[in-house]
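Reply to dn_fold:

You asked what the input looked like. This is it:
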Amino acid sequence: MGTPALPDSVPVLIISGDNRPLVVRHRMVLVAAGIACLPLNKGDFLLMHATSSPRLIMVEGTIGSGKTTTATRIHRWLGERHIAAEVFLEGNVHHPADYEHTAWLGMDDWVGLLARWPAFRLSLEAVSRAADHGYLVPYGVLEDSCTDPLPDALYAALAERSVYDGTPLDRHRRLVGDRWRAFAQSRQASPQVTILECCFLQNPLMKFVVQHHATPSALVEHLSGIVEALRPLRPIVLYLAPPDIEGTIEQACRERSAQWRDGIVSYIVGQDYGRARGLHGWEGVLTFLRHRSELERDILTQLPIDTVTIADDVAPQRWERVESLLSASFPLA
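and this is what came back:
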């Protein structure tokens, strides 16, 4: 089949599967081997070489970029076309690939926890499991399973030992890597599409970079192992990158509480990254978010995973790009 003539229009950067950058000038990108086309605008990045439909779609992007809305709409779009799919949003305590509200305790701490809270022993043992010479305790699931709320002291004791906020980086890497590998194994035989929000890139970046000020190369190494485990699911990362980062985060602040904004400031400027860079207040948050966007996009170019970055501030136009991607990825829908 000959290559069709392509109109000279808007430059689009294509990152090939082996990370070779090619700049071409056309609005309709011919997807290699798949012969599917989708419209792209200036600023969009395409990395796509899979010839069959993905079974894993991971939605990532900056704060307030529309990750939750987009993940939910993708789930609905697939459902309307009778494609079996499930979506897991940030904060879902039953998340299959992440550790939402889950603590890790060493053996001595686990035994001490059971001794201190005998009334909850059976419930704790029912939801917890051994891992990395200790126990994983999903206290979010535990709270869901109890008729009455957990005592504040019990909840606080587990929250301070959470996999994200209370474990050393090396242990975190092992636990998270095991979780992703188990998830990939559990989904290999299923045709169902899974949609995940922010757990592939955002959450580890916060752990590695913000909490521990680790190098980007350490994060790339960690994510590369996860990508390898996910390969049988033909994953796609959909990265939302509105060009006006400050406007986007200010809009998010208007839609959320002052407590949320204060929490963001405390989290970012008060940990290793913020202290090392001398960040302060809201301006420090904006400095980090600008760096985060650049860092995340650079990291994605270093990973062997199909990635589409959509740079658009306007929600209807953003969804139009996403819908075009879905139509190309699920041509028989």
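The chain has two domains: 11-92+193-329, 103-159.
Hope that clears it up.
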